[in-house]
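Posted in: Protein Modeling Q&A

I'm a second-year student putting together a small comparison for a lab meeting, and my supervisor asked me to include a predicted structure for XRE family transcriptional regulator. I've never done this before, so apologies if this is the wrong subforum. The sequence is pasted below exactly as I got it from our records. If anyone can share the structure token output, I'd also love a short note on what stands out.
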Amino acid sequence: MRQASSQHSESALAARLRGLRQQRGWTLGQTSKASDVATSTLSKIENGLMSPTYDILLKLAKGLDMDVAELFTVAQDHMGTGRCCIERKGSGEIHDTPLYRHQVLCSHLSHKSMMPFITRIKAHALAENAGWSRHDGEEFVYVLSGAVELHTEYYQPAVLSAGDCFYIDSRMRHRVINHGKDDAEVLWMSTMPSPPELHHEQL
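Accepted answer (user: helix_wrangler)
Welcome! Here is the predicted structure, written out as tokens:
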């Protein structure tokens, strides 16, 4: 069942990205220039051959001038006060990568100041240089189950268990990996990038 959901998510992302690009009349080269994502990477994503990292999704969203969630579904372009979005248990757009399974929440609102999602951090042995990320914004992570290990470029690694949490400046190089035999689950909140260029690091 999980495999089918993952395949559906990836095909939906591929079709959505291709559609957004074609709506603008852009070539892969033009999209690459706007988003600072390599043309070869864009081609792989559109053909379902690559699962983009969160950093790449941020760059695509910035280049296309939309929220990350809008890469998966059409958002309600509803500005002004009094906005509200309710997400029922088990719903939310799924984005599956080799290291994480993100369930993007409240994706129907556009121009949000933060991106909430539930993430399953997969039990996975990683090389020292794998899984690192760096981008504009800030992140808050609350561990729901299992244990994770936070690595940053300025601090010693820290292990967090269910009930623990952390808040970081996302411009600092960082990664969150599993620290147990079973998958861990966290509530992840990431603020949207500010206008300056993202400090993207290819993973």
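A couple of things worth pointing out for your meeting: The two ends are 28 Å apart (CA to CA). Residues 2-23 form the longest helix (22 residues).
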